[in-house]
Amino acid sequence: MSLEITQHNEEFSTVGQIMPEEVAQIAALGYKSVIDNRPDMEGGHDHPLHIDIETQVKSAGMQFAYLPVISGSITPEQVQQMADLIESMPKPILAFCRSGARSTNLYHLALRH
To answer: Considering the entire predicted model, what is its pTM?
Structure first.
């Protein structure tokens, strides 16, 4: 499966839902951190739990953050948390949600914060 990554700049990219078996490819692309913005079970049982992805991310030597955001309901606290993660996590960072749009919106809000 090919990852359709949107690179916003050299430090931050977004992508739709990733699977645990795709983490090695993400590491090979040079990413140092992964942010999961998709709540567990949002996509039912076909959607992997964040802990399954986190395990693979950490095994690949990258950092992981779980910041679940409900589509259309981004809070000021989540924007602040995203800004803090962008500031503190090793770069480049790859953030994901179902389609990548929520992570992109959160990123742009965090930049203005």
So the answer is: 0.96
